[in-house]
Specification:
By secondary structure, this protein is an alpha+beta fold. The protein has a single domain (7-74), classed as SH3 type barrels. Helix content is 20%, strand content 32%. It has a 5-stranded antiparallel beta sheet with strand order 4-3-2-1-5. β3 (40-44) and β4 form a beta hairpin.
């Protein structure tokens, strides 16, 4: 079974989760097919842990491979 690459998403909304998510910040998404079926992303938030959040809070960000590697290495 192939592993899916982690996505990067930009937080657009954080209502109700202000302590956990910062608007205009990039977050890593851990692949979770069950969560995606429910319209959620499993995001590594400000606590450093992964939690489920509504996918509507985020926009998926596509970066050139070189930049993506650098962003993920800095995380």
């Amino acid at each position: 079974m192939a592993t899916r690459a982690r996505q990067l998403v930009l937080c657009l909304r954080n209502r109700g989760y202000e302590a956990s998510l910062e608007r205009r910040k990039l977050y890593q998404v851990i692949p979770d097919r069950d969560a995606e079926k429910l319209g959620q992303f499993r995001v590594i938030d400000e606590s450093g842990e992964d939690y489920l959040y509504p996918a509507t809070f985020f926009a998926v960000v596509k970066l050139p491979p070189r930049i993506r590697r650098r962003v993920l290495a800095a995380a």
